[in-house]
Amino acid sequence: MKFTVEYLPRLQTTTVYADIPINNLNVELNGTKLALNGEDIDVIQGITKPVISKVPVSSSLTCVKIQPEKIEVLRNADDLSVDRYQWNIGDFKGNYSLYCKSCNNCVMSSKNVSKIMPMPSSLWYEMVDYWHCHKPHEDGPVKYMKRFNQLVPRERGVIVGSYFFIINPGDWNLLAVDEELFCQCGEVLGDKDFTFGNYKLLKWKLSLSNHKYDDYNMVYCRFFEEIKYTAGRIFTLTIRERKVCIWCFGFDIDVNINGTIMRKALKILFKDTAEVQGEELDLEYELPYVAFLKHIEMVNASLLEHLQTYKEWKVSYIPQ
């Protein structure tokens, strides 16, 4: 049996699609487990006083809806105030170590960190002219301008961004050569930002104790930041000469596709395009976008055929 579960938090509703004819489908709900003809599937979110309905989609496909008897409040599912990226400041409590993913050399250990703090936003550099209502004028005292316009970690300090860490290379087991940051094994782990001269240690080049960083999470963060600060939801990416249009839907959608669960996912529609639609995003690093494209194609292919497309768009999800 193939199935897709989608929980919409704003509507507090779970929709389940299964490739079973409606006349042959028996449904029984027990908490977060929905039995379809005796086979349990995880619907992720429990619903108080659930009302279950069945609707035929085709002769071989059935839609099962689970919703509360009464929806008290439609909440705003797109909460843009929370950290949306992997390895945020909350993951750096207690003991932790960062390792080079290539050679497993310890790059940084919590016992040697003087202070770790979050960055205001991954778009901080772009938004620096707007995020403070009392920014010093350009003809103001140099010491105040320097203090305002720079975000520099203290000695053995670390600033956590959405897809990178800002560090001083000399504080750690790293070698800065020109504009690149190297591990002792020779692997490039980061680079220098040309705007303010900070060195960025890239998360997808590292491993954090036992925590995995998904390469494509940088792209999720990029969409989130763009939506948060520009309110745009349609973007065009050019990846290895392929131009792809991305249409972002809601955040925080829980999905179960044939047993693979993605929590707090971003639902997206995508299609190839000859022209730029919406905002064209610059690709600072190619690898995360290649991984992103591979991921959304894989997820799309795993969906039930009826759910793979919406008009001319392909449907996919990317987890937080």
From TrEMBL:
<dbReference type="GO" id="GO:0005829">
    <property type="term" value="C:cytosol"/>
</dbReference>
<dbReference type="GO" id="GO:0031624">
    <property type="term" value="F:ubiquitin conjugating enzyme binding"/>
</dbReference>
<dbReference type="GO" id="GO:0000151">
    <property type="term" value="C:ubiquitin ligase complex"/>
</dbReference>
<protein>
    <submittedName>
        <fullName>E3 ubiquitin-protein ligase E3D</fullName>
    </submittedName>
</protein>
<dbReference type="GO" id="GO:0000209">
    <property type="term" value="P:protein polyubiquitination"/>
</dbReference>
<dbReference type="GO" id="GO:0051865">
    <property type="term" value="P:protein autoubiquitination"/>
</dbReference>
<dbReference type="GO" id="GO:0043161">
    <property type="term" value="P:proteasome-mediated ubiquitin-dependent protein catabolic process"/>
</dbReference>
<dbReference type="Pfam" id="PF09814">
    <property type="entry name" value="HECT_2"/>
</dbReference>
<dbReference type="GO" id="GO:0061630">
    <property type="term" value="F:ubiquitin protein ligase activity"/>
</dbReference>
<dbReference type="GO" id="GO:0005634">
    <property type="term" value="C:nucleus"/>
</dbReference>
<dbReference type="GO" id="GO:0006513">
    <property type="term" value="P:protein monoubiquitination"/>
</dbReference>
<dbReference type="InterPro" id="IPR019193">
    <property type="entry name" value="UBQ-conj_enz_E2-bd_prot"/>
</dbReference>
<dbReference type="GO" id="GO:0030332">
    <property type="term" value="F:cyclin binding"/>
</dbReference>
